[in-house]
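[09:14] KT: can someone run the structure on this one? pasting the chain below
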Amino acid sequence: MKFAPGFLPWVLLAVLIILPALGLSPNITRLLFITLVWTTTSIAWNLLGGFAGQVSFGFAVFYGLGAYTAALLIDRGVNPYLAFMASAVVAVIASFLIGLPTFRLRGPYFAIATIGVTEAVRVVMSNLSITGGASGFRISEHGPFRQVHHYYTALGAAAIAVAISILVSSSRFGLALRAIRQDEDAAAGLGVNPYQCKLWTHGLAAALTGMAGGIYARYAGYIHPQGVFAFATSISILLMPVIGGVGTVWGAVLGGVIFGIVEEELVANFPQIHLLLYGTLLILIILFEPDGLLGLLRRLFRRYGRDSQSKEADQALWGRSRLEGREL
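[09:31] RB: done, structure tokens below
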């Protein structure tokens, strides 16, 4: 039977839409919700860190700002979906304020700057009275709590993130980002404006991350700076696409799914050393499979699939032009 890669995302979406009707337990629904939220942030980071090659440790800023924006607005009776849009807008504004100075830096200096910004924002938010300071903020939303409603909201956000990732990957803008990742100076010589491209990508990634933070805040009902602005949150967002396959459309999705399922067990069973486990996992992936789990799947398709089917599967898994001209 001929492999039809373009059909698979629609099948996956249909399955996820139908799942709640199968009578899932509240715990499973909660796990799926968290996984979808993480997947959205994973795809967002991949736009900047994967496609453009700009490694940022500061995405907790956008996640936290989105969470607090939605929390404050929902607590005052604003429609949740308007609050999520506001979360995205606030995150975009923050992305430009951060990106304007930091994107003049390159390599490790940019990464270090994003760490500093994250810690600074966390300290500020811990001392703001309007957000409850270090004690956190509790949301009082009118109406009953419907877990399935939250699930479908997270699913919609993840679907939007996947669609944006596919559009960027297959566009001229996506090719410009890949050129920047390979050689920024050479890309500039070909007419690409690296500074503007990185700023716009940063803003798009921040919007998705802020929206995910707002969706999580509404579900949780309580947030605090040590959680949503934590450095561990930034590490988690970065780790997911690296696990799945950085710079690919579906690698970020795969990494988010695996992380969402495994992360809760790691934190529950190893609360003191879960960051050490994340770091160890990151080192092992970089050493033995730099292209992530999707790279491993790609090798299997190329080795055991027929040529035509393998090429189509490769295109579906990796997205357009991921490794043009490179043979494994």
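[09:33] KT: thanks! Residues 248 and 323 are 10 Å apart (CA to CA).
[09:34] RB: yep, looked fine to me
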